[in-house]
């Protein structure tokens, strides 16, 4: 290869990897990152459609290794604390689904390789509903749910 | 945008526990403004990314049912005291913010 061509090739490769690193470091505004928001899953109106939209399958195995903590009665449906802890290895993703919400998917969490299978947040519940944790581990899907009684619905209106 | 992220990360044994609180309306798009009668458009964080040492430790994909001023907690291994943890969010309007904390 001529000197000039080799220099251009190396420059191109360095630039590409620098861009890659910058995206990884969150320094660039990544269109690609936004494109990863699973619109179909978030707009799905049933638990099955949510799980299909997220994971491409709706075969869920019940599992007692998923510990879901929610209040029995939600004082305020707009702010319901939820925590999910999984006593399994190889958990890749945890999703929190509110069965009776108009669009049941509240959130989904993709875990890094060293990330513990635990997540906690606060969600809105429109009415008394099961809160279901869907867990992807070792290529399979598991779920556990707990009912939360809601007196004042949290989705407004 | 003013800093909307409060994040703390504490190491106990080999596990770092991260707790974050983000200021954001998380409007569902389903609520009418009582004064104007017009629907308040959906305005919510769609994605939160947390990085440690250049590695993404968590990606949170959020919808309108995450409560206003969202809270997030998670845990990961492999960090040392003094390491930095970065948190960044992007919402459906393309707005974003990022924050950092030192693991203690």
Give a written overview of the molecule.
The complex is a heterodimer of chains A (157) and B (104). Chain A has two domains: 3-32; 37-150, SoxY domain (Immunoglobulin-like, Sandwich). Chain A contains four helices and nine strands; from the N terminus they run ααααβββββββββ. Chain A has helices spanning 3-24, 31-35, 39-43, 47-55, and strands spanning 61-62, 66-69, 73-74, 80-86, 91-98, 105-111, 115-123, 129-137, 140-150. In chain A, strands 1, 3, 5, 6, 8 and 9 form a six-stranded mixed beta sheet that branches. The radius of gyration of chain A is 20 Å and the shape is elongated. Chain B has a single domain (5-102), classed as Immunoglobulins (Immunoglobulin-like, Sandwich), CATH 2.60.40.10. Chain B has strands at 5-12, 15-22, 45-52, 55-62, 71-77, 84-91, 96-102.
Structural domain count of chain B: 1
Strand order of the largest sheet of chain B: 4-3-6-7
Largest interface: A-B, 43 and 39 residues
> What order do the helices and strands of chain A follow?
HHHHEEEEEEEEE
CATH class wording of chain B: Mainly Beta
Query: What is the CATH fold-level name of the largest domain in chain A?
Result: Immunoglobulin-like
Structural class of chain B: mainly beta
CATH fold-level label of chain B: Immunoglobulin-like
Percent of residues in helices of chain B: under 10%
Give the distance, in angstroms, between the N- and C-terminal Cα atoms of chain B: 27 Å
């Amino acid at each position: 290869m001529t000197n000039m061509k080799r220099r251009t090739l190396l420059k191109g490769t360095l630039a590409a990897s620098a861009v890659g690193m910058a995206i990884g470091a969150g320094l660039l505004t990544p269109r690609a990152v936004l494109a990863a928001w699973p619109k179909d899953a978030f707009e799905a109106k049933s638990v099955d459609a949510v799980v299909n939209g997220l994971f491409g399958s709706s075969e869920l195995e019940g599992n007692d290794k998923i510990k879901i903590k929610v209040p029995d009665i939600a004082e305020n449906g707009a702010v319901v604390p939820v925590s999910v802890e999984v006593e399994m290895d190889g958990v890749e993703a945890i999703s929190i689904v509110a069965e009776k919400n108009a669009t049941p998917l509240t959130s989904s969490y993709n875990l890094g390789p060293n990330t513990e299978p635990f997540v906690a947040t606060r969600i809105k519940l429109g009415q008394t509903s099961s809160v279901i944790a869907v867990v992807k581990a070792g290529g399979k899907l598991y779920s556990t749910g707990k009912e939360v009684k809601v007196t004042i619905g949290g989705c407004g209106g | 945008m003013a800093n909307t992220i409060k994040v703390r990360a504490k190491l106990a044994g080999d596990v770092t526990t991260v707790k974050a609180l983000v200021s954001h309306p998380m409007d569902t798009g389903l609520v009418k403004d009582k004064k104007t009668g017009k629907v308040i458009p959906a305005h919510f964080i769609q994605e939160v990314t947390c990085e440690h040492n250049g590695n993404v430790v968590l990606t949170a994909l959020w919808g309108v049912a995450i409560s206003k001023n969202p809270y997030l907690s998670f845990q990961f291994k492999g960090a040392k005291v003094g390491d930095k943890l970065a948190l960044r969010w992007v919402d459906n309007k393309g707005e974003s913010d990022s924050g950092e904390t030192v693991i203690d």
